[in-house]
Amino acid sequence: MSVLVVGSVALDSIETPFGKVEEVVGGSATYFSSAASLYAKVNLVGVVGEDFPLERIAFLRERSVDLRGLQVASGRTFRWKGRYDFDLNVAHTLDTQLNVFATFHPVLPPEYGSPRFVFLANIDPDLQMEVLDQVEGVDLSILDTMNYWIENKKSSLLQAISRVNVVTMNEAEARQLVGSYSLIRAAREILSLGPDVLIIKKGEYGAVMFTDTGYFVAPAYPLESVKDPTGAGDSFAGGCIGYLAECGTPSPLQLRRAMIHGSVVASFCVEDFSTERLQRLSRADILARYREFQQFTHFEALDEV
User: Fold this and answer.
1) Whole-model pTM above 0.90?
2) Which H or E run includes 20?
């Protein structure tokens, strides 16, 4: 079953306490596709400039990622430069050059048909709604966002949120969106806007899924070596949604399992810079770490008194 992703394909320059890289492949659609393609066929929509080294994403074609929706526009590719200190939950943006991404409008090739699963990566909410206007018969639509759109396009963002099944954001953004310090109250208000599921990303502390019937906590995998957290959130989404696409129509149990798959894939992503670790990742690797999750999150019920 195919998954449609619409987002950025970029060139990143990143510095962490554990190394430094220049002009490596990045972008939300790239990380998502690297992860989701381990489970399902992925159709990618994005834009790059004429300077983008397409050979660096050849591995995506090898994993059956359809790149016919990747526009090559006249100009330079979107670039992001950032730094992380020892608090790897916080990215310090040093430079952002939108370049061809500034005038990007997503166009779905006819060959993509009617996707059953749609991931709207962290882009302008007006563009997210442009995508929703082009698809029909979707089983599951997922929207990711960030503080920039909350601050600058809140009205459009609220409209987009009302049109999807699942929303993902980090905990600070959830509080900011509804003006509440309580994460539970914030989740309740966001769900009242229309989505069935809210997933709050908590970085190295995992993620929490909220629904009308309760919530589920997926911890992060305890790692000894972390090199670069860039793309962890999109890799989480790729593992989560890729698993759901593989399963078919999601059930509550599958949603919980998908959260763990997302956490597992994200844990591999941060072990190297760019998509390097994801390129070497296999389903056997994922299964082994999934089983470790089962072991360290299991506990017995209390004996009745």
Assistant:
1) yes
2) strand 19-26
